[in-house]
């Protein structure tokens, strides 16, 4: 069995509507992605805490899957007509049947974070059974250890967690940083995310790794201070969250920030210097990790 896949160019004003209408006229699936993903012009999108995502990429691609015998040209024309737009540019290719599970799994190998810390998908045997192995499968929530921002935070935790520290992971995604902190010896650990799906994934991932983290939505976060606060988000929410995050760090405690582009490092370091003595920035593939100690 095979399918036809149309890759359709659309702008943010119409992409979501067009994807929905394509489903109505017979597409088997329709997903939207950044047309500039993987380039210097890639555009991160996100929702601020407590708010839904309300934007798409300026230049989007709709990947629509159709039955092998479908009249793709007619369906795209019909969808464009319903959306009252000209027929957009698109390319059509054939997708052969494959073992999608094996194909997906083959793209994810164990990731070495340090001599003692590995991220290992459940279908792999650990390369170093004596190391601390985080079992984490790629899923719907962000964070498998392969992205530089996650890697930078994991490396910090690996070098700085000595045992017993209280940790707050704000924007926990898959829970990988909170889980890593606990497996490295941290004490009470709390994970917060604006996405209920991420919270569920974090709970499941913690159970899979034999640790009992405390995960919830932002409105569940009570006043209190932690030895370590880590936030791997993006620069704009980190600008907005500075005072909140600082309020949850004990005097002498540490803050760890990532999701920051290299060119944003100086600005973000200066912002957080209101509350913290900032360490030199650390860079990886165009991304930045900032850290600092809370002043009295």
TrEMBL record:
Please provide the record's keywords in A-Z order: Cytoplasm, Methyltransferase, Ribonucleoprotein, Ribosomal protein, S-adenosyl-L-methionine, Transferase
Q: What is its main location?
A: cytoplasm
- Describe the reaction catalysed, as an equation: L-lysyl-[protein] + 3 S-adenosyl-L-methionine = N(6),N(6),N(6)-trimethyl-L-lysyl-[protein] + 3 S-adenosyl-L-homocysteine + 3 H(+)
The cross-references to InterPro entries, in alphabetical order and at most eight, read:
Ribosomal_L11_MeTrfase_PrmA, Ribosomal_PrmA_MeTrfase, SAM-dependent_MTases_sf
Tell me its EC number(s), please: 2.1.1.-
> Which superkingdom?
Bacteria
Identify the residues that bind S-adenosyl-L-methionine: 150, 171, 193, 232
Gene3D superfamilies per the UniProt record, alphabetical:
Vaccinia Virus protein VP39
Gene Ontology MF terms in the entry: methyltransferase activity
* Cellular compartments annotated: Cytoplasm
Look up the signal peptide feature and give its range: none
Q: Which Pfam families match?
A: PrmA
Q: Name one GO biological process term.
A: methylation
What cellular component terms from Gene Ontology apply here?
ribosome
What biological function has been recorded for the protein in this entry? Methylates ribosomal protein L11.
Q: What does the similarity note say?
A: Belongs to the methyltransferase superfamily. PrmA family.
The protein in question is named: Ribosomal protein L11 methyltransferase
Where is the organism placed in the taxonomic lineage, from the top? Bacteria, Pseudomonadati, Pseudomonadota, Betaproteobacteria, Neisseriales
């Amino acid at each position: 069995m095979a399918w036809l896949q149309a890759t359709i160019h659309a702008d943010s004003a119409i992409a979501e509507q067009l994807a929905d209408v394509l489903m109505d006229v017979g597409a088997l699936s329709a997903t939207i992605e950044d047309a500039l993903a993987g380039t210097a012009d890639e555009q991160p999108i996100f929702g601020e805490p407590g708010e839904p995502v309300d934007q798409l990429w300026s230049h989007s691609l709709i990947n629509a899957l159709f039955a092998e015998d479908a009249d793709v040209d007619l369906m795209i024309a019909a969808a464009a007509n319903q959306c009252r737009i000209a027929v957009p540019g698109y390319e059509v290719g054939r997708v052969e049947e494959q073992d999608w599970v094996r194909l997906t799994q083959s793209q994810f190998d164990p990731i070495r974070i340090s001599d003692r810390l590995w991220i290992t998908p459940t279908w792999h045997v650990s390369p170093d059974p004596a190391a601390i192995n985080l079992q984490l499968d790629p899923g719907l929530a962000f964070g498998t250890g392969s992205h530089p921002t996650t890697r930078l935070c994991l490396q910090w935790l690996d070098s700085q967690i000595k045992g017993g520290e209280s940790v707050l992971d704000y924007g926990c995604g898959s829970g990988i940083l909170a889980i890593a902190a606990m497996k490295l010896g941290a004490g009470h650990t709390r994970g917060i995310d604006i996405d209920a799906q991420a919270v569920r994934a974090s709970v499941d991932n913690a159970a899979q790794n034999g640790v009992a983290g405390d995960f919830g939505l932002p409105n569940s976060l009570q006043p209190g201070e932690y030895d370590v606060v880590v936030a791997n988000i993006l620069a704009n929410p980190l600008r907005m969250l500075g005072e909140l995050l600082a309020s949850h760090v004990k005097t002498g405690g540490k803050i760890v920030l990532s999701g920051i582009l290299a060119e944003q490092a100086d600005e973000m370091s200066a912002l957080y210097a209101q509350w913290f003595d900032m360490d030199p920035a650390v860079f990886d593939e165009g991304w930045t990790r900032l850290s600092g100690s809370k002043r009295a």
